[in-house]
Amino acid sequence: MITPLSGLPLLGAFLVTLALVVSALSVPQRHRSLRLPNDTYPLFYNLHITSDIHKGVLLFSGNATIDVAIRQSTNEIVLHAKNLSDIQITVHQLMDNGGLEIVDNLTHTLHRAAALLIIHPKENFQAFEAGQRYRLEILYTAIMTTRPAGLYYMDYSEEENNRPAFVAATQSEPTFGRLIFPCYDEPGIKSNFSIKITHGSSYSAISNMPVKEILSHGDLKTTLFYTTPPMSTYLVAFVISYFESTSEKYRGVTQSIYAPPASKEKGQSALKNAVRTVAAFEDYFGISYPLPKLDHVALKKNYGAAMENWGLITYKDTSLLKNTTLDPRNPLWDRITQNHEIAHQWFGNLVSPVWWTYTWMNEGFATYFGYVITDLLYPEYKVMETFVAHEADSAYSYNSFFDVRPMSSYVESEKDIMGVFDIISYKRAACVIRMFHHAFRQKVFVRGISHFLEK
User: Any transmembrane segments, and where (predicted)?
Assistant: First the structure.
């Protein structure tokens, strides 16, 4: 990890007018809740990431410019940030006439135990009044990790005949967004994101939304993306790679499979399934997929089998790529995996939990309807029989081995949040949803779920 900037006394006058720089001093810190206070909230994020991953450089830099509103008067603005270095912050007040007024009497503190970045006045007073709006420009650096958490990297040299080849990808769920950029890293706090990535000219970048513009400058390119709809930070995603894609457009939605050039054609079966599945979900609930594209990216490393980022699903490559002429295995499990992630585009992405207490409302619905839609599309596999044998059996045998918790149970620490992504949230919740499906019958149940998604 890069150490924060030093030499603060020499830079004091400069920093007052331009930025606030974090110090590395270890000072006693009062205990703070791991939850964000409810005094402020984000209106808009402009996120710019710069990476030289094409050269194998793991250091990346970021500029997170966040417009925030003050909900109730407070002496601090609190965000999440973890393992970010060289932090510099400039704060402007957004005036009613559209102008900007710099606020130069502020400093900031990193509360490492709670992974918080706290912006506050140098002397204790109520600096931020209810109804005011501010623009935070936060510059920082960080280092990519080897494990799928935050922005991480993969070495594809072996796959490319020992030619240096690196790929960077994100894993923001559940609490890893704060490793990529300072943010309000809670699922119930949604905002719009305008994302741009600066990367090597031989590489490309993809994100949640389609590419808006590509600017070339020497050996680098900057890829700008259209603004997202309001979404949670755990769904923010981008991939920087040399991958190639194959695409198909249906009902106005372009779906693409991204993979290393030599493996691109192995995604044809997954592409066909994805196109059919999105259309099937639209017809089943009467609610259109809300984005203009949905990418499916095969990665050497992924957190689990797949991650449902809105508009950009990432997969462990073995779950997405198949040579249909050489691999005669039953494709059932790969399709269930893919359809689970596509179900999340409605359950979790369009409608998100206010807190991780309700993780089961993401994972239970995605598990159950992943099976339901797969059964509709491929009746020959008798998928619902597999659901009973595979999901229900393990869900109800869970009691024999572990302590049981309610489906809705409060958690707060990062470790405990990770712990609710378990058999209860995925499998037992899916069984309870199936029970209600049978109790209410098809017409009433589907109408109720559609109303839930619409509201």
Answer: none
